Each structure stands twice: as C-alpha cells, then as structure tokens.
Amino acid sequence: MFGIGLRSQHYPDFEKRPSTQLDWLEAISENYMDTQGRPLQILECVRQDYPVALHGVGLSIASSDPVDSMYLKNLKSLIHRIEPFLVSDHLCWTGTASHTLHDLLPFPYTEENLHLIAQKVFHVQDALQRPLLLENLSAYLQFTSSTYTEWEFLSELVARTGCTLLLDVNNVYVSATNLGLDPWACLQKLPFSAISQLHLAGHVDTGTHLYDTHSAPVCEAVWDLYRKVCQKLPHAVPTMIEWDQDVPSLERVEAEVLQAKAIWVERHADSRRNTDPVSHSHHNPRDTVLPV
Amino acid sequence: MPHVQAALDVYRGGYQATLLDTLREGFPVVGKGLGSALFRETAQRYTQSTPSVSYNLSHYGSTFPEFLGTQFPTPSMAFLPHLARFEWVFREVFHAAPPPASIDARQNFSATDILSFFPATRILSHPYPVYPIWRSEGEEASSEGWEYLLLHKSKDQRIWVTPLTEWQFEILEGLQQSLSLETAVLQALDRCEELDPFSIQRFFSTLSWPLLGEFQATLPS
User: What is the ipTM of this complex?
Assistant: First the structure.
C-alpha cells in the first residue's frame, strides 16, 4: 500500500533488485512512453518485483483542444507493456496543440469546462479501457469566473464520469494556504469513497506563497492533514511519497514511506481493518491486487 | 495569497526553467564548454525563439545544434554545433531500442546483401573531432580534421562509439543508403585510392555486424 516515485537517481539501486520497505512504485508515464532505452529497461526490471502505477503530466485533460491521439496511442502501448494497477494524470491543461508549456495549469471551474472535461474523460477511459484517476493541483491563483470550487468541480466530475481521485494532500495544503482557505474544510467536501490513491510531498515556503516543488520532506502540517485523511478514508488506499527534485538516497525516501505507514497504522489500530493488504512477498507481483 | 503577478510569474518562470534544464541535461558538454552563464544566456535566446511542441521534453532541442552555429560563428567556435549534434544523436541512441535478443551472433552475409540498420545504429561525420572533447567532458581542446564515428548499442543497452576512417564511413554510409555490400565497397574503392582488400577484410571481421543491423538478401518492399 505504500510506495515511492521511480526516479532516475535510484535506477542503480533498483538494478540491484534490493529488498525494500516498498509495496509499489509510481512511474511518470511520459518518461517511458517514447523510449526503448535504459529507462524502459529499468521500469520493466522494477515491474518484475513491484506493482507499478503510471502517473502522467501531459494528458492536458482541461485543454480546449482534443486529447492528443498520438499521446493516447503511446500511453496505451505503455499500459499494455507494463500492466499498471492504476493510471492517473492531473486535472489541468498543459498547453495547446501547437505549444506545450510543460506545466500543470489551472483553469476556471465552470459548468462549460466541466462538460468539456467530462467528455474528454469518457474518451480517455474508453480508449484506455480502464478508469482514469485525476489529481488535484497546487494553486497559486484562482479565477473570478469560476462558479464551482475546486472540490465541488472534482466531486461533480467523479459523479458524472466514474473517474476517481488521486488526492495530493500536499497540493491541498499548498493551494488552501495560498488562497487563504482552510485545508481540512476544503478536503471534507471531497467524496472520500472516490479516492483511489494518495500523494504526499514536500514544498517550499518562499515568503509570499508556498511553492509545490516536491523537493523536501513532508512537513508537519501536511502530516497532520494526512492523519485526518487516514481517519476519514473508508478503505486502505495506495499512498506514495513524491520526491522529484534534490532527490535523496533511496533509504531517505523510504524513511518518509515508513512515517506514512506508521501514521496509517496509528489511525487504524483496529485489527479488523486490513492495514497491510499488499504483502512484501515478491512472488507473482503482477497478480498482486491492491485496493482501489 | 500571492499577488496575481507573482502567481503568473510562477508559471512564466517555471516554463523557462523547465526548458533550460532540459537543454542543460541534453547538452552537458556544450554547457561545460560555454560555462554556466553563457550557456544560460544562449539557451534563453533559443527558448524564446523555439517553443516546445511535444508532450515529451526529451524531444526539445533538436535544432539547438544549428542555433549554436548562428550564435557562435567564429572559427574558434566552429566545432560547437557539431559537438551539440553529437550529444543529440547520442541521446537518440540512448532512447533507441537495443538489438533484438534473438539476433544471431553468427549471422552470415553475402556480397549482394543489404544491411537494415537497427534504430540504435548511427554514423556521423564532422569537420572537427568532437568525440575526444565529449569523452573528456570538455577537457580536451578542439582540433582540426574530419572525424567519422559509428554509434551502436549492444543488447544490454550499452552504447559504443567507434572512430572510423573515411573509407569505413563511406562503406557504412552506402549500406545505410540500402546499397548492397558489394556496391558499397566498390563505391568506397572508387573514392579512396589507397584502399586495399586486406584492409576491407579486416574492417569486416572486426565490426560486430549483428549489433548494427540485419542482413537481408533482397531489398525490402
């Protein structure tokens, strides 16, 4: 149930196929969609030992342009090759058909955009033949034309399309703080039964705003928010530590995973709950079913 | 809450920083050669004139070598676009598929065969020797004289760079153009007067042909 992101800094570690405290790994889809080189070789090596989730940053589901058909084709090929247990991306746009900005860009939460994105989610889920998870963004501004809050928008999108949520707890904290909102008050409005995955990460305080850098340990305020999320979740959910910049040793990132696990166990001391649904056995990891 | 302008600056700055990091990662020896400040200035001019159009960041920078040629037109820097081109091609080979696991190491071929290069097999020619500069991570200085290189992969994803003579390059270039072995060799013999059959035989026996491509008895349809 607890994992980390697969990062190139840790390729040499995973090549040795060490014994770890990890139950699964998440790979950034775009890093493996257009390569037949060493990165894909490492991912396939990792996949022999761990279930893998694919997490995209380029689907641009909120763009007014159609979903890039080549992108979908390449993603589908990767899914066929890796057999991930989850496939996700972000609720954002990343550019236009002619210009990619390589960033997760916000948009107004309006009925028009809700309808547009719902149609695209249907199209993607049909193309990939599986449900899509969508992640909440870190926000640095909000649009005056929005008629929904982010949480209302997400909830409505889930209800209309059957997609589920990748809840980034750090992003909730960053957005709420930047926009002058209460993080837990925002979170409570989400359909917790629709959460299929959790992200935990660090951020940087610039003095004027929080900046979602994924370059630091998870801060205490985000751990506190995670404690509350754990208590409210109706079932165990795959949870991972995202550390993308200034990536430390594998052991250091694993230490964050162990902290997340300890919090989950502390919040779910009831032995009737299945707190560790994925065993550490590496036997037949392709057959391992994680709670979704 | 951040001021709107500060918030927009997060996105504006993020785009530039992402493209700059991509170029820095894709052209590390060029970056080392120019130095951090000059590389950043040059890369910023490139990013301002060349937007990213692919979802895949590793596709960004294909025209950076040519751009460098326009930015540094002096003779002392004439090697720079060729060094950048080598770094770009090396990256393409890095991401290319290795030879199939099933390839037969004892593959036989005849004079009339053509060679279909694997995606990871590339040949390069430069008017300046850039491989020594790249291999030394910029420590070795540029010199003069044409350089001919063969890049290919072994099955374990290792990339091999083999310096070639001009006639060896000519033969491989002919094969890459789907000439038969016999025709490619005859063409090289025509162009290189000093070439002898023993040298050709030795070249053929030392190359790991099964890792370069597959020999086919007929032209592909």
Answer: 0.89
